[in-house]
Amino acid sequence: MLFAALVSVMYQEWSTAGWIVLSALITTVIGFVLWRLFDRPGELSTREGFAAVALAWIAIGVIGSLPYLLTGSITNVTDAVFETVAGFTTTGSSVIPDPGALPHGILFWRSFTQWIGGMGIIVLSIAILPLLGMGAVQLARAESPGPTPDRLTPRFKETAKRLWIVYFALTGAQILLLWVGEMTLFEAVNHAFTTLSTGGYSTNAGSMGAFSAYSQWIVIVFMILAGTSFAVHYRAIRKPDVYWKTTEVKVYLGVMGAAAAVMAIGTWGGPIHEVIRNSLFTAATLITTTGFGTADFGLWKPALQIMIVGLMFIGGMAGSTSGSIKIYRHEILFESSRADVRRLIHPRGVFITRIGKTSVKNTVVEAVQTFFMLYMVAFMTGSFALAVISSIWGPDLDIISTVSAVASSIGNVGPGLGSVGPTENYLGVAAPGKWLLAGLMIIGRLEILPILILFNRESWRR
Questions:
Q1: Which H/E stretch holds residue 355?
Q2: 360 C-beta neighbours (distance < 10 Å), count
Q3: pTM of the model
Q4: Is the CB of residue 43 less than 8 Å from the CB of residue 134?
């Protein structure tokens, strides 16, 4: 928060700076009091690790709303918490019609929440908690953005450091490239923060559609990089061929290319370069769950809109900052289903699920199948609940708006279709609906299990 206050000072927004400093002071006092009351040095158990992650993200979503509320940028608690949760979970859903009307300090805070949330607040804690005698392995298992944590070193602290180095480097590179174009330094910093985090908050109501083709191409490249595993990026520093030798990278780029091709065919008309750029931009922003926009895909043909909702369930690579199900899980589901079909044909045969040349353990296959089932149950339950809420509290959302809002929230995508489309926002959703969607954002960001553990009675037994 103090970084955001400093930005306000730089732009001589003295009142905004003062309120943000007060937000930081309140946060510090609350944190200090809780630390003194409940600090118990020692190793975390697995269930404590999962609970710490889930409770931390809920607490951050609430406390992070203070700058919005105290500065008057957002006037009610529901909208402020919704915007904050959408920021930290890198969902990018917004209740602010025109971000350009906000003070610079608040705009920076809004983007900064996504940048921090992108790599994960708890990943940062992996490097800090060992110094406090806390266990990092359990936190990594709960926060790991994929089926299994991808270690670069035997120590999670060193792994976290190396991932942050890559994150910093890519952010810095994008800032420079955007600044070279027509963006101001402030705009470049904000958009780099929200691109590398696959968050999608913009400083302009028109999102990336308000900027030049050059800036849009830069964002396309960095969205693709952000949706790629950061462990792969780190390994590629020494061995660049790791990109085209990794099966997941090939599938990830293949799916994105195929989706862009279908969109280009479906929207053909006008300058070819614009059709290609808008199609690739939209495919990248949906698959990586970034949520930027250059074209209003809410006006596209129904077949393309159905595909857009489907792309919300794909996600980037495991170990990236993107949300949704992830390419790696889809690979495992496909290969395990293929093995099951072959097993029916050849009952005595032995078939192993493989990704490339690597065999996948049965425990991993079962975990992925469980996750997929829970994900779809959460999607269907959330869609029904939002439909009920909108029918009682209003406005009555149509089925396209309801389903896409839930798919977008649990997948951490941002914009949906219909009344929550790329040129609209979530301001008109009823308050209970916003709390529901905010909860789905956290569930999606933490990949369901840490939240479910909070509601398991056995988790609370000593």
A1: strand 354-355
A2: 19
A3: 0.90
A4: yes
Tell me the sheet residues that pair with 354.
359
Half-sphere exposure of 365 toward its Cβ, with a 13 Å CA cutoff?
A: 17
The three-point CA angle 407-322-154 to 5° equals 135
For residues 107 and 73, the answer to whether their CB atoms sit within 8 Å is: no
Q: How far is CA 448 from CA 76, 252, 278, 451, in A?
A: 28, 23, 33, 6
Q: How far is CA 385 from CA 58, 261, 379, 407, 418, in A?
A: 20, 35, 10, 13, 18
Length of the chain: 462
Tens digits of residue pLDDT in 30-58? 999 998 998 777 777 777 777 788 888 89
Please give the pLDDT value at position 351: 83
Q: Which of 95, 88, 96 is nearest to 115 (CA)?
A: 88
Query: Which residues contact residue 69 at a Cβ distance below 8 angstroms, ignoring those fewer than 6 apart?
Result: 75, 77, 80
Show the tokens assigned to 75: 């006037």
**367: phi then psi, degrees, rounded to nearest 5:** -65, -40
**94-128 pLDDT, tens per residue?**
999 999 999 999 999 999 999 999 877 656 545 44
> How would DSSP label each residue in 212-229?
-HHHHHHHHHHHHHHTS-
- Do 157 and 126 contact (CB within 8 A), yes or no? yes
Contact partners, residue 106, CB within 8 Å, separation at least 6: 4, 16, 20, 67, 68, 71, 73
